[in-house]
């Protein structure tokens, strides 16, 4: 059984699988390499794994066999005709090895069930009346998961719980130091959810979760230097990859991009300063123009791309121009290969892609924007639950042989 009532720190190792090692003493490392490769890249043949990982065929066969015995992978025969010799079987990650994912926000709590390979089995949106407290969040998640217990126990093995929080999270303890839009202060969220559900839990900032998900499964795949900026009802967050490694900072608070100063004479931010990016570029200011309190992400796309309201168009253009200044600052600091926009920032880009592209080029310093690609994040509504699950899978991916036998069934 997994350790009940425990939380564990968020991952800080490179996201890519790496290559194998033929030294017999590093068998566990090689198992980790293969399982991570399958988890991130999907089903592959043994021959593919041999080529990618630099191990010989017999070693790959033995390691794959061990992953199959651990019920972390399974094999299927190839069906292609015309191949010479004995066809190499496909090796699949077992998506019944799963993680629970939780994303609390100001208007709803999202609970997901995500299998190895990033397969989203369930995504449940539980709308809340007002800001949910930590205790309410734990109770809601427990009630939803308890309703799934029969299916979880009969069909899945749970690696743990990953939590994406719109705020500052201490990565070593899973304590939410500050989630200002939720009015949470020094809350041991990972520990509380772990005790309530009986699975180990890990918590992280939602934007850091998002950059990991996009870099593995989305528009940031294969990019080592990446800036991800997300806009949500809670404000603007950011995540950064530097040389393929997530930027954490000394206390895990790195890349608080929403608190970049863009207008010294602007609105007062909850952080105490005026004119932060997240006060000047804000979903609520768009909703106020269109007379709405909330809006679905897909509907927002439609509204922003089809509206003929001059007031809305003026606000969209104002926010885009300010956003471009902020993005140019990030480009100067991090010199990324790619910048991704998620949440309602992606909707702004869908409304005026040329204005954003040109605005970033005009505001950027010298050649820093040369060769840069600016894209919308791809995972949309799956983003945070897939990313949160990645944190929950970290221990299993790092040591399949040591972790799999203890997974909660």
UniProtKB/TrEMBL annotation:
Signal peptide limits: none
Gene3D superfamilies: 3.30.420.40, Winged helix-like DNA-binding domain superfamily/Winged helix DNA-binding domain
InterPro entries with a match to the protein in the record: ATPase_NBD (IPR043129), ROK (IPR000600), WH-like_DNA-bd_sf (IPR036388), WH_DNA-bd_sf (IPR036390)
Pfam families: ROK
Region (Disordered): 1-26
Family that this chain belongs to: Belongs to the ROK (NagC/XylR) family.
Protein name listed in UniProt: ROK family protein
Organism the protein comes from: Herbiconiux oxytropis
């Amino acid at each position: 059984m997994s350790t009940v009532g425990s939380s564990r720190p968020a991952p800080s190792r490179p996201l890519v699988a790496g290559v194998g090692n033929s030294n017999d003493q590093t068998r566990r490392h090689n198992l980790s390499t293969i399982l991570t490769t399958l988890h991130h890249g999907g089903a592959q043949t043994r021959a593919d794994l041999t080529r990618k990982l630099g191990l010989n065929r017999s070693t790959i066969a033995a390691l794959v066999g061990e992953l199959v015995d651990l019920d972390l992978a399974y094999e299927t025969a190839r069906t292609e005709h015309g191949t010479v010799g004995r066809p190499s079987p496909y090796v699949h990650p077992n998506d019944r090895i799963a993680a629970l994912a939780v994303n609390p926000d100001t208007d709803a709590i999202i609970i997901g069930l995500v299998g190895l390979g990033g397969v989203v089995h369930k995504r449940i949106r539980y709308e809340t009346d007002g800001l949910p407290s930590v205790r309410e969040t734990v109770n809601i998640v427990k009630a939803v998961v308890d309703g799934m217990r029969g299916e979880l126990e009969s069909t899945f093995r749970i690696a743990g719980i990953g939590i994406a929080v719109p705020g500052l999270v201490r990565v070593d303890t899973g304590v939410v130091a500050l989630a200002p839009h939720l009015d949470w202060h020094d809350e041991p969220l990972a520990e509380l959810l772990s005790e309530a559900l009986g699975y180990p839990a890990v918590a992280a900032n939602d934007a850091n979760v998002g950059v990991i998900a996009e870099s593995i499964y989305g528009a940031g795949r294969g990019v080592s230097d990446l800036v991800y900026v997300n806009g949500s009802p809670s404000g603007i967050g950011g995540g950064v990859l530097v040389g393929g490694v997530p930027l954490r900072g000394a206390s895990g608070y790195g890349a608080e991009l929403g608190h970049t100063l863009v207008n010294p004479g602007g609105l007062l931010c909850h952080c105490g300063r005026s004119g932060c990016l997240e006060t000047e570029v804000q979903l609520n200011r768009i909703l106020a123009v269109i007379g709405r309190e909330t809006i679905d992400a897909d509907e927002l796309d439609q509204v922003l791309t089809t509206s003929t309201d001059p007031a809305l168009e003026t606000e969209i253009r104002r926010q885009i121009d300010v956003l471009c200044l902020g993005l140019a600052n990030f480009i100067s600091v991090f010199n990324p290969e790619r910048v991704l926009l998620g949440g309602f920032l992606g909707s702004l880009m869908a409304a005026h892609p040329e204005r954003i592209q040109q605005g970033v080029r005009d505001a950027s310093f010298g050649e820093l924007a040369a060769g840069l690609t600016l894209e919308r994040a791809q995972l949309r509504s799956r983003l945070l639950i897939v990313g949160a699950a990645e944190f929950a899978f970290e221990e299993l991916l790092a040591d399949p042989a040591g972790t799999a036998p203890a997974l909660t069934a």
